[in-house]
Amino acid sequence: MTAPVSIIFGATGGIGSETARLLSRRGHQLVLVARNKDKLEKLAKELHEATGGASPACAIQTADIVRSTAVDDVFDKVTDQYGGVDHVAHCVGSIVLKPITSVTDALLQETLQLNTASAFYVLRAACKHLPRVRSNAGHEPVDKSVVLCTSAVSMHGLPNHEAIAAAKAGVIGMAQSAAASYAPRGLRVNCVAPGMTDTPLASFITNRSTARKASEALHPLGRIGRAEQVASAIVLLLENPFITGQVLAVDGGLSTLVSQHAAR
Ligand SMILES: NC(=O)c1ccc[n+]([C@@H]2O[C@H](COP(=O)([O-])OP(=O)(O)OC[C@H]3O[C@@H](n4cnc5c(N)ncnc54)[C@H](OP(=O)(O)O)[C@@H]3O)[C@@H](O)[C@H]2O)c1
């Protein structure tokens, strides 16, 4: 059986790299995408060595995905090289914790570009490329999928998250619309919504004891998440052929439950 071809945008980040590790162990042909080439090469080497060379060698591509042409270029190259794409994970974004009155136009544009527009570019390219059936000689239904990272803060009002909540709510909207548009063609689209997760992105909170404790207390489970916990949800959504149009919160209850820790 041919290995599924999977592109991970933000592959060297906390959540992206754990997703890459899980998919590599599951035998996917990975295409790792981020801006920093050295980090991509290091991860590709680690993944290849971790399976004793049993997994297919990862391809790497540098791209700044706030530019749509860079995203299209990745899909064109992967399609040329492998004949198609099966799964796509978008693990690029930011955390913006600032009162709305301090959010400048420039910060708002930057937040929307990195979190919403880049997800849109990836989703649009996937909708162009994935429904093109790579190999369906048998009678198996076509199953292609995209997972986008939104955030728990887009579904639950937390103070001083207006900019990132706006950006990440847009990600949910585009995912659900595309899921409806492309379900007849075998393309599934889902989101994961992490709570605070221990990654380089969140280190400005997790490395500061007071801020970390305050964040832990906001989560009903009383702790922040680990990147591999979000990654395993991404893999589930990428691979389960009967899930589409869903937002899976991996957030210790943050988006739906009242925390009993906050008042202590
Ligand atoms: N960590 C959390 O607490 C948390 C909470 C809620 C939602 N999320 C969401 O989860 C997703 C993953 O977050 P994370 O914590 O894993 O982030 P991270 O550790 O900062 O990783 C981000 C990844 O994206 C790449 N990247 C950044 N800007 C890029 C650009 N313009 N073009 C291409 N690649 C770019 C980075 O590599 P280069 O710098 O080399 O490009 C890196 O591989 C994001 O959408 C984030 O908003 C995270």
From TrEMBL:
Q: Which GO terms describe its molecular function?
A: oxidoreductase activity
Which residue numbers delimit the Ketoreductase domain?
Answer: 4-199
- Can you tell which superkingdom this protein's organism belongs to? Eukaryota
Tell me which Pfam families the record gives. Answer: adh_short_C2
Keywords, A to Z?
Answer: Oxidoreductase
Query: Which InterPro entries does this one have?
Result: KR_dom, NAD(P)-bd_dom_sf, SDR_DHRS6-like, SDR_fam
The family line of this record is: Belongs to the short-chain dehydrogenases/reductases (SDR) family.
Protein name per Swiss-Prot or TrEMBL: Ketoreductase domain-containing protein
Give the organism, scientific name: Cyanidiococcus yangmingshanensis
